[in-house]
């Protein structure tokens, strides 16, 4: 299993570097594809619990939300989510016997849970996309740099949390949700995310005080993303959301922490870095 995880990473990381750094429409297409696969995984998870959510509502909601993000229209993104709620509730009124409150609630939850974070991947990547930063790795679009802050911070958090938890973890963080996670591991993850973001910020000439605080926020948000998906998996009684990524599981399994950290990075950058 570990060997398969490493192989997937060895293949996936170079592809991710090219798509994030140099892709425009290719990056957008990749994000939409990932979001649609994640929605299918969520739909399958709900079926395991015999909850028949409206597949097409989520599908259309994700596509519309992605389109708004591609164009940088955050206000229209809110309108799309409102439309999802209204259409879903209309379905409940028209088909109450087969599509009740539970089905409606999970349709809305799933659509927002997936469409909003993936839309923020697009918003973050295309923030100041024509403003280039001179970095130790060459000239990169500002949006690509901001996205790397989120990815590196989240990966560093996940990696340090795993190793610190394995070595010295004694006190359970959320035993009813994820028995393997420890308070010590969470502390290690917090330090890892701060170090990772500060390192990227240093290479890119970004203010290190802001990078340290942003790393702190990522170190808090990322574990919540992980635990949020753990709640869904425990609720539906499944181990992995899918098997599209050998050794890693599904898209939701791999992107759960990123889905919570990316919006945090986007709004922090908009509020404090781009003045």
TrEMBL record:
Its main location: membrane. It catalyses: a 1,2-diacyl-sn-glycero-3-phosphate + CTP + H(+) = a CDP-1,2-diacyl-sn-glycerol + diphosphate. Pathway: Phospholipid metabolism; CDP-diacylglycerol biosynthesis; CDP-diacylglycerol from sn-glycerol 3-phosphate: step 3/3; Lipid metabolism. The chain crosses the membrane at residues 6-39, 51-72, 78-94, 106-126, 189-222, 251-269. One of its GO terms (cellular component) is plasma membrane. The keyword Membrane applies. GO terms for molecular function: phosphatidate cytidylyltransferase activity. Keywords: Cell membrane, Lipid biosynthesis, Lipid metabolism, Membrane, Nucleotidyltransferase, Phospholipid biosynthesis, Phospholipid metabolism, Transferase, Transmembrane, Transmembrane helix. One of its GO terms (biological process) is CDP-diacylglycerol biosynthetic process. Its EC number is 2.7.7.41. It is found in: Cell membrane. It is a multi-pass membrane protein. PANTHER family: PHOSPHATIDATE CYTIDYLYLTRANSFERASE. Belongs to the CDS family. This is Phosphatidate cytidylyltransferase. It comes from Sporomusa ovata.
